[in-house]
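Batch job 17 of 40 flagged for manual review because the log was empty.
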Amino acid sequence: MSADVTYFRIERMVRSDAECFLCALEDEIERKYIDAYLLELVMDAKAREKLVEGGGFCNHHFYKMLAVATRPDSSDGHGIALISQSVIEKIIQDLQKQRKRGKEVFRQTIECPACAHVANLMEIYNRKIVELLCSRNEEFLKLFRSSKGLCIPHFALLLKMIKDTMGGQSQEIIKTIIDVEEKNFSQLKSELSEYIRRQSYEFSDKDRKAVEDVLLKSVQKIVGRRGIKHDNA
């Protein structure tokens, strides 16, 4: 992946007005992987064999696959059925081995290819963002300051990466990131106050509906997108 393509994709996400542009980027990478898998690999016997050997998809991505494959305009349910059948056949084999072994505890190991794909690409994008910030790229700093910033998990990850990269020279950049976060969380706090105010009886359903999106935005800002892998190390 060329540096220019990496930068322009990051720039597009920062300009997307998402509550966390890294969540938006992860979501796009994940959706493209799922669409490509269902289009190109779901009926491929070798790809299915490799998937089964790794234990199948994780909880999050199996449900994502199922949701896309069972849409009214999709015919991918057949492929998901083949994957499920193959995984179940492997589980039955493991159960039979378990019976022969006796007391050994049954363990399920999943090496989800979707998780690996998302993680590998996000590593590239995260390192590019750190490089842009640490090199004090004025164009990107201006863009970053005008963004809605990051969710707390991605904020914490970015701070750690910058500290690991710059050590004691990171304070100025960290201050910039914190300023952006504080500005956007303060704005969100004001929007929540307005939401709460409009729950009073004198406001109409239309008034309440006009501000209802702040609940989702708040959750996205605090914990990140649904399915995000938190780094608790």
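Reviewer: the log was empty due to a logging misconfiguration, but the result itself is present. The two ends are 28 Å apart (CA to CA). Unflagging and moving on to job 18.
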